[in-house]
Amino acid sequence: MKRYLKLLWLFAKRSLIDQMAYRGTFFLAVLGKVSRMVIPFIFFQAIFLKVPRVGGWNYQEIAVLIATYLTLESLAVITFHRNLSYYLPDSLRNGEFDFLLTKPVGTLFFSSFKAIDFFDLTSAITAVGAWIYIFKILDISINFFNFLPFFIACFIGLAFWYGLILCLASTSFWTITATGLGRFLEGIIRTSRYPATVFHGHWRNVVFYIFPLAFMSTLPAGLLLGKIQPFYLLYAFIFVSLALYLSVKFWKYALRHYQSAA
Amino acid sequence: MAKYWLIFKLGIQRELAFRGNFFVRFVSLLTSWSVLVYLWLAIYGEGKQLGDYSLKEMITYYTLITLFSFIITQSVAYQISDDIREGQLVQYLIKPLKYIGHQFFKELGRNTLNFLYILPIIIIFLVKNAYFVFGIDTPWKFFYFIGFMVLAHLLNFLIFYFLGVISFFSHTSHGLIYGWGLIEGFFSGKLVPLNLLPDWLQQVGNYLPFKFTVYMPIMFIMGKIDSRAFINALPAIFIWIIIGWLLSRFAWYLGSKKYEAYGQ
């Protein structure tokens, strides 16, 4: 465990040095990243200028939802998201994956966390800023009993994200490039910035139970705000545990079929 | 010109070879579109109206945004960034053609094919006018619309060509392109119609070129601005095209001087 943590730190340091080598573009990109975090708030502010509620959520509640999504997005992007959706297919295509197999470290760990993108820590800092803003405007009290389920739900949301990306990344052992699929999933995941309660009928069942995009941000934010029953957390835990188990199984299956084609 | 025609055709052929990517993107955008439609249904379900947009107009707006995503793209910036980073650019430097022309016609080929792919949806859009709003009802308006689209495409190309060329001065500008792509998306109206934004943001948007690439052409299609607004916008569009061209050439000039073509 200690060895893996040390490796994570080294990956992160190397990545930051790499990014900061070109300061001009680094700071412009930081500005872009910060804007990315602010834009959803402006989007909903524009809407709430005209309506009081969206899908049963008021502006303060939507702000919690967006901040939750942005926090999870930052964590995913800093750690596994790009590694699995972009760098892994690249390494399979150009033959670098062969070298990875020879390293004395778990292949899944290395593939998932090779490039810890400290650059995106700027987004995470903005997400912290968003939370400070929310605590100022929100009129509910945060205590142990609503924070703990929120924290667990965030972890579940992140695990669900990881499972999805891992499944998708595993397909790149058979395809020329899975980058298109990476973008596909990004587009779908990004829709969880909006409250899943806007859906009605069968679609609501789909986003809550079958393809539960609601795990990403509606669940944690809903638990924090007392808008979702704790029972749903249990369902999410079972669902994601199973999904994660199957994703890792699929990864191992895909790895066994790797033919070092480059 | 014959060589650029060939590049245009190669752009189409390349896109045909990776047609799976189009359909993956199509499903992704269709999902985003569906979520947004549900979101707007929920918003309008509150019994309110946003600005001067009816629900039908709002759905039309986001349908057009989705369709525009296939023909007004940012991909040229990523392509140039990769060419520079991987050392592939050198093969273009020794060829008797302009790199900017090569990229423009390749992009044009790609977008032409994408347009053909979405043409059936456009036809449905025109036929099912009970669900959508369509304001181009005279040949003149159609003519203006074509002019608008040509200029929007050119302006968008120059914006992202410039962002791609910045890679000469960086290890990779993917983060920069992505971040600024989002800003462009916001101020071009891809997220929300610009006239629904707070006044100060609309003012900021007025000093930027992005609204001419998506927002104004869509407003024109929906009949929310008339031909006179298009003609009034022409000087600003041309000025931004000239600025985009000059900035791109300047960045290319400086960048190609320091380019060492070592790749990664």
Structure description:
- The complex is a heterodimer of chains A (about 260) and B (about 260).
- The two termini of chain A are about 30 Å apart.
- Chain A has helices at about 1-20, 25-50, 60-80, 80-95, 95-100, 105-115, 120-135, 145-170, 180-190, 200-210, 220-225, 230-255.
- By secondary structure, chain A is mostly helical.
- Chain A is built from twelve helices and no strands.
- Chain B is mainly α and about 260 residues long.
- Chain B contains eleven helices and no strands.
- Chain B has helices at about 1-15, 20-45, 55-70, 75-85, 90-95, 100-125, 140-165, 175-185, 200-205, 215-220, 225-260.
- The radius of gyration of chain B is 19 Å and the shape is globular.
Overall mean pLDDT of chain B stands at 84
Shape of chain B: globular
Ends of chain A: how far apart?
32 Å
Classify the helix fraction of chain A into a percent range. Answer: over 70%
Contiguous runs where pLDDT drops below 50 for at least 5 residues of chain B:
none
What is the β-strand count of chain A?
0
Structural class of chain B: mainly alpha
Summed up, the helix count of chain B is: 11
